[in-house]
Design goal:
6 strands, alpha+beta, 9 helices, six-stranded antiparallel sheet, 13% strand, single chain, 441 residues, 3 domains
């Protein structure tokens, strides 16, 4: 039996690790494709990009584990069936379920690891990658002055260079517009040639200009009509530009803490209780306010009815009617606004519940999909990459789509939080039926 266990484990672990790596890579490529416009052209260091991708990859681990288990179990049992190894095992009096035991133990261990990872590692990874992504998105593009194009990324300046040397530093026919003091009438510096270089700390860029002239117009006494013109020629002139806005500044992670995706189960439980208390207090306050308003309106109503009975003035009657109508409209508007507030609070609470249940559903999915994949592979008896890959995609897409539809319904309050388990409830009977048929063959 030990030889059989070693054979099954060797056959299972290889595809499991390979599929897990491929699944994480595919999810990571999807992430990069989504944020490529925010990352590209920023002049980011390899370390920053590697940190972002590593933290993002960690958030895909709970999703990649069920995919890996499903594909590896189908492939392992399919290969054993295709090479008649399952037939040999059964002829030796060993039931199919016993062959699945070594894989099952690995899957159970993966389920525990998946939950612990989702509960302890993933919140920290989400916090880190979202902080880094925020810093990247607000960073200016890398300094890149192209010939024949106006460059305006440096605050207060617009630079035009008609020709740029092969070394990337020598410039020809340079025009610099200084808009810091006057946007409508900027100071202009023109030079025949120059050199561009940055300081060692890359905080400043120095333009050394040769054979040029500076032009400026200054309004007198704040009147735009009177604008003395100044022109100064120079043989050599140096201009410095502050590049601090181009630097990558790391934000404090504490700013982004508190999101439901950055909490473990105990923190989610505490936050849910706090949010429910806030919702209850909001409902109670609104109820008290409405009751006071109804008491006041009731007094006004009795007074208005009294005036209505005694009054024969048409103008007075119209005023009473308009006032009553206005009060009814305000009350209805208040009720609708309060309903929107409560609906928003309910959705935010539901998001916490979704994240709480997701930590368990993705972990349990490893076991559920194992009982789908392993018996399916033993029934079809096809190994390799063809059928196992197609079957894995079909089963997981079914599981994922049902889960997304149910999650949307839970978020909107259409069904209870138990809806997060609908995909599990759908796949579990399929796994039980397939296992029964595989064992009975």
């Amino acid at each position: 039996m030990k030889k059989l266990d070693r054979l099954v484990i060797r056959s299972f672990v290889g595809p499991l690790v390979l599929t897990f790596a491929v699944a994480v890579f595919v999810l990571l490529m999807q992430f990069i494709w989504k944020y490529i416009d925010d990352i590209a052209g920023k002049g980011l260091s390899v370390g920053i990009i590697a940190e972002l991708l590593l933290d993002a990859s960690a958030t895909f681990v709970p999703m990649a584990m069920p995919i890996a288990v499903l594909f590896a179990s189908i492939m392992t049992m399919g290969n054993m069936g295709e090479h008649y190894e399952l037939v040999a095992v059964k002829s030796g009096g060993i039931p199919l379920w016993r062959t699945m035991v070594p894989m099952g133990l690995i899957v159970v261990a993966m389920t525990v690891v998946a939950y612990l990872f989702a509960d302890y590692v993933m919140p920290s990874a989400v916090l880190k990658y979202r902080t880094t992504l925020y810093d990247i998105t607000r960073k200016k593009p890398a300094l890149n002055i192209r010939p024949g194009e106006y460059y305006s990324e440096i605050d207060g300046f617009v630079i035009l260079v008609n020709e740029k040397g092969a070394d990337g530093k020598t410039l020809h026919d340079i025009t610099i517009y200084d808009t810091r003091s006057n946007v409508s009438h900027p100071d202009v510096v023109v030079a025949r040639e120059g050199m561009m270089q940055t300081t060692p700390d890359e905080r400043y860029m120095i333009f050394t200009l040769y054979d040029g002239c500076s032009y400026s117009e200054t309004a007198e006494n704040g009147h735009e009509e009177s604008q003395p013109f100044t022109r100064i020629y120079f043989d050599k002139n140096e201009m410095s530009f502050d590049l601090s806005s181009f630097a990558f500044d790391k934000s404090d992670e504490s700013i982004f803490q508190g999101g439901y995706q950055m909490m473990n189960t105990s923190q989610l439980d505490s936050n849910i209780v706090r949010l429910k208390d806030q919702r209850r207090e909001s409902i109670s306050n609104q109820h008290n306010n409405m009751r006071v308003k109804l008491d006041v309106d009731d007094a006004h109503r009795r007074l208005s009815v009294y005036d209505l009975v005694d009054s024969t003035d048409v103008v007075q009657l119209r005023r009473i009617y308009n006032e009553a109508h206005s009060r009814a409209e305000r009350s209805l508007s208040d009720a609708r606004m309060h309903d929107q507030v409560i609906e928003s609070q309910n959705e935010y609470i539901n998001r916490h519940y979704i994240e709480w249940h997701r930590k368990f559903t993705l972990s349990i999915a490893c076991i559920v999909l194992f009982f789908v994949g392993a018996p399916f592979g033993s029934i079809v008896r096809k190994g390799g990459l063809g059928l196992p890959l197609v079957a894995s995609v079909v089963f997981f897409v079914l599981y994922y789509v049902i889960g997304m539809i149910a999650e949307k319904a839970v978020r909107e309050g259409a069904i209870g939080t138990w809806g997060m388990w609908i995909s599990t409830f759908v796949m579990l009977p399929i796994g039980i039926i397939l296992t029964y048929k595989a064992v009975r063959r």
